[in-house]
Amino acid sequence: MIQSSSPGTVCAGERTGRTCGDAMKCQQCDNPAVFHITELEAGNVREVHLCEEHARVYLNQSEGGDGGDPGEPGAVEGKGQKGGGLSGPLGVGQTAEDLAVLDKRCCDMCGITFFEFRNQGRLGCPHDYLQFEKELDPLIANIHGATEHTGRRPSRPVPEGVDAGSGTDGLTAIIGLRRGMKEAISREDYESAKESRDAIRGIEDAWTPPAKAGEENA
Amino acid sequence: MRLDTLTNSIGEWLRGTGPDSDIVMSSRVRLARNLAQFPFVSRATEQDRADTERVLRERIAAVPVGRELDYIDVGHLEEIDRRFLVERQLISREHADAQGARGVAIDRLEQVSLMINEEDHLRIQCLHSGLDLHGAWEQIKVVDDQIERAVSYAFHPRWGYLTACPTNVGTGIRVSVMLHLPALVITRQIDKVFRSLHKISLAVRGLYGEGSQAMGDFYQISNQTTLGRTEDELVQQVADVVPVLIDYERRARDFLVRETQQNVHDQVSRAYGILRTAQTISNEETMQLLSRVRMGVLLGLIGDVKLSDINSLLIRTQPAHLQKLRGGDEDSSDDIERARYLRRHFEGGDSPSRATAN
Ligand SMILES: [Zn+2]
Ligand SMILES: [Zn+2]
Q1: What are A196's strand-pairing partners?
Q2: pLDDT per position as a tens digit, B317-332
Q3: Roughly how many angstroms between the first and final C-alpha of chain A, as a whole number?
Q4: Do B173 and A174 touch (CB under 8 A)?
Q5: Which of A41, A155, B42, B201 lies deepest, with the highest CB count within 10 Å?
Q6: CA distances from B348 to B4, B14, B314, B340 (A)
Q7: Considering CB atoms only, which of A126, A149, A169 is closest to B227?
């Protein structure tokens, strides 16, 4: 199922003139663009903006391995680049079968499928970076020419007993628990729902920032 | 209402002061941050968005960020007010057009803006007048550190700050300068300059324009990558190239004055003449002519106009600003109203404003 991204989630706009002007249009027609696809070719990142109809055509072409070039009226830096389909994000040499399997994989926390990410160019939650690590690695290497963060880090330590190597992923687990709780409630399994709720509270308490804890004690 | 006080002021970044402000309009740094416990905005339910907005709003209000902030509930603003904030560069167009709970906290000088529920949960922006990337970076660091005391930003030791789009992951930083480069445009050197920038992976885009056609000779230069280098290195990457561009533009201006003085003087004077006398004028034409007049002021060809006035007119002649300034008087077209506003401005010195009557 192809999903459209909601308006207001276009990071490509930063490179294509988002400050002023009309809402982004499809590159093939005058309809509003609801698909924002990140393409990689020869180390270049290119954003493709399409309406629903043209996105279907485009994605079908891409999956056929041929890669249509929808043209590039918007981006200053996109001129002259030829479409390479969606091979970029997936690494070279991926077969259609690999792709089909990969597309069905989904995040344990937010539930986004890899296919949805490919279509929107937007991830669903922080855990996706771990869930799709192997697939994102070449994509990120292509975009940034690097795969290791060397900049600033949060100064606050992770809670006791939490593996610092996983960053804030322990807190992100709440997203999955919240989903589980909702599902439990909808099937009237209140016991599981309560367990999820308690687990969420436990994690929240452990991760409560000291600044806020201080206020609450005061 | 607070937005009406904004109508009658101009942002700090439009002062037209600061180092090299004859060419560098403004310097901006922004950081993309997300809360670890919520899905990214495009995946968030209505409830998630409301919770994210509430948590960020409350916690930001509870920490001192070095400036007093006003919070604007963008989700409940009229469309004209949202457009007004976009023209003001306080929120992005995407933020204005989005759905659901969202807001922006800004300081009185309009230097600091904190967008909640844009593409990422939080976009922190510091905007300074002239060439002041390091000042903007030092300021945003304080804001970021203070907020980080009160929230858990999504972070991974290897990937850095985790963002909705992998193009922002790592530092989440975007460093940019807005440059006014009329002489490079007139002498047709601008494309050559930009091709060289792409080679060192800096992005260039026209400001106030659709697509690749820049309006009014304003261009924004920014870093393209956010991972694998420190924030200081990324700030420096942009900072390093700006003096080179300033030098090119200065030389092109010198060349114009030296070799084609009459021609340039004529162009500038005509531009000024049209702005002062036109009966109807589009946004594009206004931008283009103001750009020429701005250059004329800087080259000493026009004496009685202040730089900050031109900067301010660039914003105030845009549609939402005009509409607010004329206070809901809908019986004339934008272009007629724009021309009237410009004539009044250049005749009377001080810009008249009917919004003050409210
Ligand atoms: Zn279309
Ligand atoms: Zn996820």
Answers
A1: none
A2: 999 999 887 776 566 7
A3: 51
A4: no
A5: B42
A6: 22, 21, 18, 12
A7: A149
